[in-house]
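Subject: sequence -> structure tokens, single chain

Hey, anyone have a minute? Need the predicted structure for the following. Not urgent.
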Amino acid sequence: MSRLFKIEIAESEEELKKRLQTANLGNQKEKLIMLWWLKSGQVKEQQEIGKRLARNSSTVTRWLQKYRTDGLSGLLEIKKAPGAKRKIDDAAMPTAVNYAALEEELKTGKGFSSYGAIVEWLKKEHGQDIEYATVYAWVRYRLGAKLKVPRPQSHNQDEKLVSEFKKNSESFLIV
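Reply:
Had a minute. Here:
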């Protein structure tokens, strides 16, 4: 049997229960359950907490140490890795002037026929060598633009037959 440990839980049982009901993340719920068990006196040993939560006792020790030093907010804090540095940040997408120029170019009727054409345009006009995937993500998701290219039409197409077809097809539309 492991030795007993002492820890003072500053929050009330009701407060811990309320926070437990509103917690969204499983990791936070485990930590709140641990504190609630300790506050309500259901658990007396760290090993028992570890067994109930299916966690190693060293994890429970680390959580309790974090609670002792930083309190409940420190225990429930979620740290996020910074990740890789963006190749194009908001301020310099492909520089503020290029960003506006790209947006204006997309709005014109002429536009671009492909994302590869945008990559070439940025390289030629603004001297920036940006990867296809980056340009695609910026144009598609940040600017919200879609490249629209009309379907090819035959040069042998009869205009009278096309207009007659359009007139007749409107009468078949189900409303």
